[in-house]
Design a protein that fits this description.
alpha+beta, five-stranded antiparallel β-sheet, globular, binds adenosine-5'-triphosphate
């Protein structure tokens, strides 16, 4: 992809052991993260986990008590926001409603004392990138939420920062527009090639946008990696439950070599052994994602159900059935009273399973993930 003229040299952002307390409360507790140059890194976690405080420390609005923050080769601890090569887009956009779109974008540039002759060209370029060419004269108070969001982006990008910081930028938009705008954010970020750090509490937003995803809980990093690594090999029960929908099934480990043999769901299963599973573990939790259970009608005379190495099947009773158009979701009670969420990606309305139906579940054993308790 051709890099825009607006791009500056992308720089990595490195946080090493960063800590911040407010009074006695530790808001950020030893965070070590690298946001690689030109990539989009998300900080995702529940309310109060410390993601905004982390972002504000990168932007220079709060100073860490311990640890180091580097942008490129430069340690920026103690450097005020105006002297960092970062720009933040806030939740509320902070536009001047009485000013035109052009003036809102030019404002950021004038503040950096850019040469006057360069201003019109740079503003036009920023507005082109965010898809607002032609709206320069419109007052920003007359824009839709999505358009205001784009102006806020243009205003941040026009100064050619090395790092773009986004704090829940889509939270004021309705559900459909959020999805449209997140695709737009990704397009803009990739066109400009700017190192971007994005705070959200929405795990789906984080997964769909991230090159690198950092899951935070109670001021700490619980796990970081590619979105599929975090989803498929969660490091903890917290991560498995926060990212996506999950079934947690209690399991007893009988033996563990390259694979683990476990007792779970009233049967014996041979499941993949995660590299960090201790040798002496006995009690564990089997993580089963709803899309790795396939539901079908109960078969006559299939008691006990057939099993091969990769698939285990169980009978169960549907206790909840919801049709969502593109998918159906079920809750199915199986042996020993466990209830499992099941996701059927291609439901056929007429063949939908109803509450009370007995069904067969087929589990992709190799897609399960074992966590030690
Ligand atoms: P949210 O999604 O709700 O914004 P967050 O993950 O961004 O949450 P932070 O805003 O970073 O979390 O807050 C982390 C913790 O620090 C919370 O317990 C919060 O109450 C506390 N905190 C944040 N800012 C301040 C402040 N200025 N003074 C005192 N406590 C604060």
């Amino acid at each position: 992809m051709t890099r825009s003229a607006i791009a500056s040299d992308p720089q990595p952002v490195v946080l090493n052991g960063v800590r911040k307390r407010f009074g006695k409360d530790v808001a950020v507790d030893g965070v070590t993260v690298t946001a690689r140059a030109g990539e989009l890194t998300t900080l995702v976690g529940p309310s109060g986990c410390g993601k905004t405080t982390t972002l504000r420390m990168i932007g220079g609005f709060i100073d860490p008590e311990e640890g180091e923050i580097r942008i490129g080769d430069r340690v920026v601890n103690g450097v005020p926001p105006s002297r960092r090569s970062t720009r933040t887009v806030f939740q509320n956009y902070a536009l001047f409603p009485h000013m035109s779109v052009f003036e809102n974008v030019a404002f950021g540039l004038r503040a950096t004392r850019a040469p006057r002759s360069e201003i019109p060209g740079r503003v036009e370029e920023a507005l082109r990138i965010v898809g607002l060419s032609g709206l320069e004269r419109r007052s920003s108070g007359q824009l839709s939420g999505g358009q205001q969001q784009r102006v806020a982006f243009a205003r941040a990008l026009v100064t050619r920062p090395e790092v773009l910081l986004l704090d829940e930028p889509l939270s004021n938009l309705d559900a459909k527009l959020r999805i449209q705008m997140r695709t737009e954010i990704r397009r803009i970020q990739q066109e400009v090639g700017i190192t971007t750090i994005y705070v959200t509490h929405d795990q789906e937003e984080a997964m769909s946008l991230s090159d690198h995803m950092v899951v935070m809980n109670q001021g700490r990093v619980e796990q970081q990696g590619l979105p599929h690594e975090v989803y498929e090999t969660p490091a903890s029960r917290f991560v498995a439950s926060f990212i996506g929908v999950t079934n947690f099934v209690p399991a007893t480990v009988a033996s563990a070599d390259e694979a683990a043999e476990i007792e779970a769901l009233g049967t014996t299963l041979r499941v993949p052994r995660p590299p960090d599973l201790p040798d002496d573990v006995r009690s564990a939790t089997l993580v089963i994602r709803p899309e790795h259970l396939h539901v079908g009608p109960a078969k006559e005379g299939a008691d006990p159900p057939a099993r091969d190495a990769d698939v285990a099947s169980f009978q169960g009773e549907v206790v909840l059935s919801s049709y969502l158009g593109a998918a159906a979701s079920y809750r199915v009670r199986v042996a020993d009273g466990e209830e499992l969420f099941v996701h059927d990606p291609a439901p056929h309305g007429a063949a939908l399973h109803r509450v009370g139906d007995v069904v067969t579940l087929r589990l992709d054993v190799n897609r399960t993930y074992l966590l030690s308790d």
